[in-house]
Specification:
Layout: E1 2-6, H1 11-26, E2 35-40, H2 46-60, H3 67-74, E3 77-81, H4 91-103, E4 110-114, H5 121-130, E5 142-146, H6 154-165, E6 173-175, H7 183-193, E7 207-215, H8 224-230, H9 232-249, H10 258-271, H11 277-283, E8 284-289, E9 307-313, E10 323-329, E11 336-343, E12 363-369, E13 373-381, E14 389-397, H12 398-401, H13 409-419, H14 428-446, E15 454-455, H15 463-470
Parallel strand pairs: 1-2, 1-4, 2-3, 4-5, 5-6, 7-10, 8-15
Antiparallel strand pairs: 7-11, 8-9, 9-10, 11-12, 12-13, 13-14
Helix pairs in contact: 1-2, 1-13, 5-6, 6-14, 9-10, 9-14, 10-14
Bound molecules: NADP nicotinamide-adenine-dinucleotide phosphate.
Length: 479
């Protein structure tokens, strides 16, 4: 296997991909013979590229670097220069790959990783084809990994997908949503379908509502160039949050086959209640953190949202009438991602008879980051002579239960591409269904020119977000 990383000198490669590949090597999970080839525009020696990789591993690996393991890893890391824009831009890359594969007795199976700005996905794929570097079928496999964002609206997403589909068949295409590689996200299906306690409750009979929070503590930082074009809805909701929602809401798949699972997730996306103008006005809140417009690289008149909250409905039999509240933003009080499933209240009798002291509802919380795990809030009697009911938590922490650090999402995802398992990757139809659903919001926002509501840095969004939930008689979970 040869992994060819376009954007081999970029930030993603430095911080995530090379450290992930190094950890897979330390765990003995990479194929015994392989090569990793970083590709960039400026020529660089293999040695210089290994120094760049070592710096990334030293700074960002979940394990401290081990010199012996590093030396054996570095021996199969290479660099190749290529100009994607040039007429025969990848011809020399093909020759270099052939030499590396020949010298290292590799069969020529390749993974092309697009760690590039999305505007370059199409041109790069075209050049790969022109240089005859892609086998659709035959003796050598060729796979492509595409990073998010896949487009910035439905048209651009379809254009990227069309460009890739001219050269790669859908089973060869791995669209990364790194959230899906996180242990706790994978655990959602295990929690639901390997435990008889939860699944019977996951429906409108027992669930009052669901909350999904993806909160970042940081501001826009150095990524204003990207973020100004994106905003919270594109950056988080269209991909990660709708994927989480799909996992929580999907029907039981009849097998663990990748396409069976992905079919069920698609059904959820197709069941999302369409957002018309009236629904956008009442069910979607956007805002900017105070000071965003003064950040370096941000337009002083920017209308880009750094926070969005939504009330969403999945209009199918299982979830009829159950609100899903989604919120995400930058400069929130803490970096947290979690899903909370609120069960319905017990009847207002017996222990729940006092109208001024209602019992807390049972809540199943799936913590995705940090401190991965899940907890179940239940009511229990306080010890003593009186019947005094108090909320208590049954709590499971991954770190405490399964010793050691969990693999990073990129480790799992890269391993799955090597193994040819697309379960945790987004299929074209799902990406486009998610874009179709968010488009009315983006289109409506595009016509609006008023400054966005603001929220102070370190707050849980604007007052409008609280009203969105409180107007339904519920509250955001205190995190
Ligand atoms: N960074 C992250 O944490 C992160 C997270 C999620 C998704 N992503 C996605 O991953 C991809 C890569 O992100 P990144 O942060 O690594 O980006 P980056 O550092 O800005 O760029 C990656 C590489 O793209 C190449 N490049 C940029 N403009 C080019 C041009 N006009 N022609 C040819 N090559 C060009 C550069 O290669 P050379 O200059 O070396 O030739 C650069 O090293 C993007 O799609 C991004 O949205 C990144």
């Amino acid at each position: 296997m040869t992994i060819v990383i376009f954007g081999g000198g970029g930030d993603l490669t430095h911080r995530k991909l090379l450290p992930a590949l190094y950890n897979l090597h330390v765990d003995g999970l990479l194929p015994p013979q392989m090569a990793i080839v970083g590709v960039g525009r400026k020529p660089m020696t293999d040695e210089a590229y290994r120094d760049f990789a070592k710096d990334g591993v030293t700074r960002f690996s979940r394990r401290p670097i081990d010199e012996g393991a590093w030396q054996s890893f570095a021996a199969f890391v290479f660099f190749a220069a290529a100009e994607i824009d040039a007429e025969q831009g990848l011809a020399s890359l093909g020759a270099r790959l052939d030499i590396i594969e020949h010298e290292h007795h590799l069969a020529g199976d390749r993974i092309y990783y697009m760690a590039l700005p999305p505007s370059l996905f199409g041109p790069t794929v075209k050049q790969l084809d022109r240089a005859r570097l892609v086998n659709r079928s035959g003796s050598h496999s060729a796979r492509i990994i595409v990073e998010k964002p896949i487009g910035r609206d439905i048209e651009s997403a379809c254009a990227i997908n069309d460009a890739i589909a001219k050269v790669f068949d859908e089973p060869q295409i791995y669209r990364i949503d790194h959230y899906l590689g996180k242990e706790t996200v994978q655990n959602i299906l295990v929690l639901r379908f390997a435990n008889s306690i939860f699944e019977p409750l996951f429906n409108q009979k027992y669930v009052d509502h669901v909350q999904i929070t993806v909160a970042e503590e940081e501001g826009v930082g150095t990524r204003a160039g990207y973020y100004e074009q994106a905003g919270a809805l594109r950056d988080m909701v269209q991909n990660h949050m709708l994927q989480l929602l799909a996992l929580v809401a999907m029907e039981p798949p009849h097998s663990l086959d990748a396409d069976v699972i992905r079919d069920e997730k698609l059904q959820v996306l197709k069941s999302l209640r369409p957002l018309d103008d009236a629904a956008i006005a009442t069910n979607v809140v956007r805002a900017q953190y105070a000071g965003y417009r003064q950040e370096p690289g941000v337009d002083p008149a920017s209308l880009t949202e750094t926070f969005v909250a939504l009330q969403v409905f999945v209009d199918n039999w299982r979830w009829s009438g159950v609100p899903f509240f989604l919120r995400t933003g930058k400069r929130l009080p803490q970096r947290t991602s979690e899903i909370s499933v609120y069960l319905k209240d017990v009847p207002p009798i017996l222990f729940n008879a006092n109208p001024s002291a209602r019992l807390d509802a049972n809540v199943l919380t799936i913590r995705i980051q940090p401190d991965e795990g899940f907890s179940l809030g239940i009511s229990s009697k306080r010890p003593g002579p009186h019947v005094d009911v108090a909320p208590v938590k049954m709590d499971f922490h991954y770190g405490a239960q399964f010793n050691g650090s969990s693999p990073e999402a990129y480790e799992r995802l890269l391993l799955d591409v090597i193994a040819g398992d697309p379960t945790l990757f987004m299929r074209r139809d799902a990406v486009e269904a998610a874009w179709r659903w968010v488009m009315p919001v983006l289109d409506r926002w595009a016509t609006q020119t008023a400054a966005l509501p603001q929220y102070p840095a370190g707050a849980w969004g604007p007052a409008e977000a609280d009203r969105l939930v409180e107007s339904t008689g519920r509250k955001w979970r205190a995190l």
